Amino acid sequence: VQLVESGGGLVQPGGSLRLSCAASGFTFNRYVMSWYRQAPGKERELVALIITVGGNTNYADSVKGRFTISRDNAKNTVYLQMNSLKPEDTAVYYCQARKLGMTYWGKGTQVTVSS
Question: With helix as H, strand as E and coil as C, how does the chain read?
């Protein structure tokens, strides 16, 4: 099983980034996919999730209206479009796959929002 995040980097406040998470080694379309983040000195927190089919999503209040999660089951990939980024969005962003007690994590990608 592998979850490989990409797309992180340094961006100015107000800017945008698109994170990708490429999955392999499991039946992607049967797993709920989520993005979490962890800032220095803070606990890991859920940012957004998307269910297996139908496209239902859920977001942390802090990112609603700015971030959009999506998935492409044909490409085994989940995305996080991040707009209007703020310094407080700075964190390592992790991809998670979850189904009935089975949970897989990626190694994370750093997002830094700074002028």
Answer: CEEEEECCEEECCCCCEEEEEEEECCCHHHCEEEEEEECCCCCCEEEEEECCCCCCEEECCCCCCCEEEEEECCCCEEEEEECCCCHHHCEEEEEEEEECCEEEECCCEEEEECC
Q: Which amino acid is at 37?
A: R
| Mode of pairing for the β-strands spanning 9-11 and 109-113 | parallel
* CA dist 54 → 29, 42, 50, 101 (Å): 11, 33, 9, 21
| pLDDT number for residue 54 | 73
Work out the angle at residue 29's Cα, subtended by the Cα atoms of residues 24 and 30, and round it to the nearest 5 degrees: 105
Number of C-beta neighbours around residue 109 at 10 A: 22
Note the pLDDT tens digit of each residue in 20-79. Answer: 999 999 999 999 999 999 999 999 999 999 998 777 999 999 999 999 999 999 999 999
